[in-house]
Amino acid sequence: MKFRLAFAALAIGRVAALPSHQLEERDTVQGFDISHYQGTVNFQGAYNSGARFVIIKATEGTTYIDSSFSSHYNGATSAGLIRGGYHFAHPDSSSGATQANYFLAHGGGWSGDGITLPGMLDIEYNPSGATCYGLSKTAMVSWIQDFVNIYHSKTTRYPLIYTTNDWWTTCTGNSAAFHTTCPLVLARYSSSGPGTIPGGWPYQTIWQNADSYTYGGDSDIFNGGITGLKKLATG
Questions:
Q1: Which residues have a Cβ under 8 Å from the Cβ of 235 and sit 6 or more positions away?
Q2: What global pTM score does this model have?
Q3: pLDDT tens-digit map of 176-213
Q4: Among 63, 122, 132, 169, which is disulfide-ready with 162 (CB 3.0 to 4.6 Å)?
């Protein structure tokens, strides 16, 4: 998963972007995301510095389980972090439903224990082929909907969707099909904010603001205070 802050508080502690002339400082919560690429992750150091959540790679396509998922998940839990899994999508290899079920079977589930985030669908640039995996915009939206429907039916929660504005616009036609159900995790490496919010989402729930974080992985910023983060975990 390698790929401004203007806030207005909402009921659960998440916030909507404001025009630049209305910028106000609001509560945010530091977090991070990791995969097996991070050989060493200092979970306790992250917690002690103020981080309160981490999103951990679990699966990719239907043939790959991240070799560090279990150790990362246990380390995050021991440090007191709210944690969840993510799935790197390969829409060209199998259906959204098939990949959702694979994700759920290998760490992507959700429970109402207060420390588990809904799973995240990482849907972005193809690392080894056509940007949109050879799918039309309509077919891509259908693939994502297939994944979302299975995940929701099995967990009662809608998955987070991780993407970039450019990829979402290019490959889904800037679809607004998910803006009322799936929280947005928006990647944009910048110190000036998350930029354009795609797909009709009124705000980003999490902003991946940098591809490095002192204690391991990429830096993520939850768009609200700790109460909102806990609400995202509990549903």
A1: 112, 118, 156, 157
A2: 0.90
A3: 999 999 999 999 999 999 999 999 999 999 999 999 99
A4: 122
Could you tell me which residues are beta bridge partners of residue 221? 30, 207
Q: What DSSP assignment string belongs to 40-64?
A: ---HHHHHHHT--EEEEEEEETTTE
Q: Which residues are catalytic?
A: 33, 124
3-state secondary structure at position 22: helix
Residue whose tokens read 């990429």:
218
Please write down the HEC assignment for all residues of 101-139.
HHHHHCCCCCCCCCCECCCEEECCCCCCCCCCCCCCHHH
Q: Map tokens 């992985």 to a residue.
A: 217
Q: Could you tell me which of 186, 142, 145, 179 has the C-alpha nearest to residue 164?
A: 186
Q: What is the DSSP letter of 176?
A: -
pLDDT (0 to 100) of residue 18: 39
pLDDT of res. 1: 61
Nearest Cα residue to 165 out of 135, 196, 129: 196
